[in-house]
Amino acid sequence: MISSFLFSILLFSMPAEPTAEDEVLSEFRTIEKGKTEQVDFPKNEILNPIMIACTDKAIALSNIFKPTYLSLYDYRNRSFVGQFLHAGRGADEVSMMMTFKSESDGFHFWDPNKHLLSSVKADTPWLISKSVSFAKANSQIFKAYRINDDTSFGTGPFQGHPFAILNNKTDSATTLFGIYPLSEEENLNDTQKAYACQWNCHYEPGRKRMAAATTCGSFIAFYDLKDLNEPALVCRKGNILPKFVKAKGGTVKFLPDNTYGFIDVTGNAHYCVALYWGKRNDDFPKDIYGGNMLLIYDWNGKPIRAIKLENIYRAITITPDSDTILLVRKNSTGEFVVERLQLPK
Predict the structure, then answer these.
(1) What are the tens digits of pLDDT across the range 305-345?
(2) Which residue in 28, 206, 251, 268 has the fewest CB atoms around it within 10 Å?
(3) Is residue 262 a contact partner of residue 215, using CB atoms and an 8 Å limit?
(4) What does the alpha-carbon distance between residue 1 and residue 98 come to, in Å, rounded to a whole number?
(5) Coil, strand, or helix at residue 195?
(6) Do the strands 303-313 and 31-34 form a parallel or antiparallel pair, or are they unpaired?
(7) 2 Cβ partners below 8 Å, 6+ apart?
(8) How far, rounded to the nearest angstrom, does the alpha carbon of residue 73 sit from its chain's CA centroid?
């Protein structure tokens, strides 16, 4: 199952080496303190969220466990809408969600077990309104994101590159692009490179820009996708590589001193916002995984603000119209909550 590669860790009895100076954080002149406030999302309706996305009126949570994958909340009316998309392989059912992003009138997600990039509308969240199959383009696509009705892009073990432009109508990879932070001297195959980096991505349609950041190590890159035949690297940042050993089946296992960098990345027309940790797995509190810093960039990759949060969050999104960052975390009593932080204009 594709999900088995997420956050797999090989524990060795060896001391951790000091982490190199974090080039990503050093670009920000100061690190501010940020204070969030809770959204009136009813606690008992949050099942086990792993991703969050929002339109201009709805907050949606992608649940990692059954029986349903989608929890929807109307935050303008402060009302819980319901839980939708039952687990399964039939019509209007979901086997797994590996991405979850907003569209103009709803959300789209990648189901790797069914090889489908599907959409649901916020007004009819129980119905999958459209789906695109990418079974032929690459049977090992890790994550897929919609660009428009004709085109998407994906991450996975593509030949020589981390990303591919995907044709929605012909189920084909038309252009391979992007760079890995890994050294060519490490003699890794394409599958090992893809497993080692574990990209989190966001595409901003108004800007026609894409941000891609590694969960393991500390590396983020910005791409211009105006010409889908020749995506262009705008800039790259980060100097901490993932630390791992090769494993059976062409995958990798991570070492105890591996740095977990970008936990999630999102954006709107104004900002790209990344949720960041920048420490080892062993530095997480018990049973908590996520990030406690917001790194805010413009779409040229210029660092704008770094905000340190009081808690650790597992996922973020940002509203398209009000620059409100929405965050998900587990509180001290073990309940999941949704919180918000307003960015000043």
Answers:
(1) 999 999 999 999 999 988 999 999 988 888 899 999 998 76
(2) 206
(3) yes
(4) 12
(5) helix
(6) parallel
(7) 96, 98, 112, 113, 140, 142
(8) 21
